[in-house]
Amino acid sequence: MLTSESITTIMPAFIKAQANFAPALKSATNPHFKSKYVALDGVIDAVAAPLREQGIAIMQMTDIEDARTILVTRLIHSSGEWLGSRYPVHPVKADPQGEGSALTYARRYALMALVGIAPEDDDGNAAVKAVEKPITTAQAATLRDWIEQTASDTDKFCAVFGVDNVDAIPAGMFDKALAALQRKAKQAA
């Protein structure tokens, strides 16, 4: 968790707010699996009013780091103190719909994790499929070559994509991974 330098004012307010959180209700339905899950608005409905009553606002914004979308979630107290987190967004498809779906999923889970409410069954089946289909052996070899050429730190590079090794990078992220390394090489030249 990320925090402001001091959290002596926000923490007591957060604890009071947390005691009044409503249940995050499974109000949305995944049509493919006919299962219910907590939608983003359900998470916000469960926590927003108690947080506001304690002078805490919810902010979620995106940042770009190494050609990767990162969701930044912050709870900001009227005193200026804050609690926050950074969550990498993992789109299954590299198009606007895939990015939007992954961002909504990330917003829901990042907020639930930050405020300490339990996640319910969800529509994360697409995210599981992305993890199950890694890049090919040839693509991994290409990335390793570029990592070596750019003198990049393999562990840090893999961390950006939320994996432990190059072979586990999701296939849908190969183009972004390669583009990031190529940009680094171009900047070094």
Name a few traits of the molecule.
2 domains; 4-stranded antiparallel sheet; 189 residues
For the terminal residues, how far apart are their CA atoms? 37 Å
Mean pLDDT: 87
The H/E string reads EHEEHEEEHHHHH
- What count of domains describes the coordinates? 2
Description:
The structure is a single chain. The chain has helices at 10-18, 40-53, 96-115, 125-132, 137-149, 154-160, 174-188; strands spanning 2-3, 28-30, 35-37, 56-65, 68-77, 82-88. With 189 residues, the chain is of the alpha+beta class. It folds into two domains: 2-129, no CATH class; 134-188, no CATH class. Strands 1-6-5-4 form a four-stranded antiparallel beta sheet. It has a two-stranded antiparallel sheet with strand order 2-3. A hairpin with a 2-residue loop joins strand 4 (56-65) and strand 5.
Quick take:
The chain has helices spanning 10-18, 40-53, 96-115, 125-132, 137-149, 154-160, 174-188, and strands at 2-3, 28-30, 35-37, 56-65, 68-77, 82-88. With 189 residues, it is an alpha+beta fold.
Q: What does the secondary structure layout of this molecule look like, with pairings?
A:
Elements: E1 2-3, H1 10-18, E2 28-30, E3 35-37, H2 40-53, E4 56-65, E5 68-77, E6 82-88, H3 96-115, H4 125-132, H5 137-149, H6 154-160, H7 174-188
